[in-house]
Design a protein that fits this description.
- The protein contains eleven helices and no strands.
- The protein has 195 residues and is mainly α.
Length: 195
């Protein structure tokens, strides 16, 4: 992801939305199940006032399990003055905002911090990837926890906390074959926790 990160930094510094969109589309071609990549693409479209594409990408992010920052991005999109005359979208914005409050994500500050951590994970930093695996494990979003814990294996294949996140995710989703494939070799090597 180094080339992606380098371009990300350049486009961010220049506030170059057009090239950011191209970069994110290429990224999504390579990683089509990365929910936050779709949210980031939606944000770039919203910045260029392409609300239809922004909505499409936010909805795709939510479909892939990004039910916090992508949901908030839809609230922001549906609250735009240009869309205020659409009563259905206004009702959806209210519904999503209420859901976020009920889930304990009740401040823009929390969501902005979470989005910053997701940016760090998207460009390949280990600490935010691990942090998101822990965060989603804690909130029971096992699909997202599995995604980030699996990514963290690239940095440390035997981190006990990360293995616990994966174990929780696999068990919650009844992915027993994946659980066995990951833990059997570690158990055979003598790792007590894997056994």
């Amino acid at each position: 992801k180094k080339e992606f990160k380098d371009k990300w930094d350049i486009y961010q510094d220049k506030n170059d939305h057009k090239n950011f969109i191209v970069l994110l589309k290429k990224y999504i071609e390579k990683y089509p199940n990365d929910a936050y990549a779709y949210e980031s693409l939606g944000t770039m479209y919203m910045a260029t006032n392409n609300f239809k594409e922004a909505e499409k990408n936010y909805l795709k992010a939510m479909e892939l399990g990004d039910n916090d920052t992508a949901k908030f991005s839809l609230v922001v999109l549906y609250s735009k003055k240009e869309l205020n005359n659409d009563k259905e979208k206004t009702k959806l914005a209210e519904k999503y905002f209420k859901e976020l409050e009920n889930e304990g994500i009740n401040s823009h500050y929390n969501l902005e911090n979470l989005r910053n951590v997701k940016n760090g994970a998207l460009i390949g930093y280990a600490e935010p990837i691990f942090g998101l695996a822990a965060y989603y494990d804690n909130y029971g979003n096992y699909k997202m926890s599995e995604k980030y814990a699996t990514e963290f294996l690239e940095f440390d294949k035997e981190n006990l906390d990360n293995l616990m996140f994966l174990s929780n995710a696999y068990i919650a989703q009844k992915k027993y074959a994946e659980l066995e494939k990951l833990f059997l070799p570690l158990a055979q090597k003598g790792m007590m926790q894997a056994q």
